[in-house]
Predict the 3D structure of the following.
Amino acid sequence: MESIVFKSMRADIKHIKEIKTILKRIKQEDVDENVFSQDKNAIDIIFEKTSSNDRSGILARLTIIDALYSTQMNRRYYGLDELAESLVLLSQQQKKPLGDLFINFAKNQDTSHFNFTKIEGGRSIPTNLFDEKYGIGKDGGDKGIAISLISKYAYFETRKQFPIYDSIACEIYPLLWTYCGFPKKEQPKLIVRIKGSQLINASETMRFYVNAINIFIDKLGGGISYDHLDRLLWFTGEIRRGNLSLVLSREQFDKCLDYSQKNHLFKETNVFSIQKVKDVDKLPFLEKGSLLQDFFRLAKELQ
């Protein structure tokens, strides 16, 4: 298949078509030599061999997601254990499988799907899965919420029927909206407010984010899975950030290092800079006409 040619001039219909073409290619192809795909496959295997009906199974699932996605929950004391326990309590008290709760939320953004009651000091305390704080630091203080880890757990629990929330997605989503030429006044609001390590109104943040992703999919014409969109957001975001060891195979990465050093494509911190690339077609570590080449072009085009 011929690779996509991205023009610098603004052409809304053309850009929408380009995004949809990439998403179609993602559906048809799978770049399985990179760390991204290998990590997802490893997590899928763990989910196949464990159950969401018991705490130990959930803990095993959370542990591998935390390790491979680097969500840093393992740096908190008791964080993974407390989140696993909360997921068990949520399912028991809502009287529904976790997968059903996450899928229902993806459809209607009703945060009450995640309300449950925990027992603390002999008292019943109402809380919400996304708003609850998990784990403590060395000083015994709360370490905060786990919105990104929970969204990733939901993604795998539902077999990719729940959108992943993380900093990359929040960074690339508005850029794609602008690139497609959708009216700025119609862009759904995102809550991305940080206060120290605390994300304010986490359940509302997740509600706004899922709603925004659903609207973007509808704007593109529908029929797009969260999984394919996640791959688009992730690859584009990592390339823009210069984290190419996660995107390329080892052989491609070695070629990239050699080419980048010779052509001064590094920022001051020795991070690859897509903005310094004059012609993506001339990058020797990318196969011409490949899906990966399309990701690099798009990453360079997004402003």
Notes: The chain is about 50% helix and 5% strand. The longest strand covers residues 115-120. Residues 1-11 have pLDDT under 50 and may be disordered.
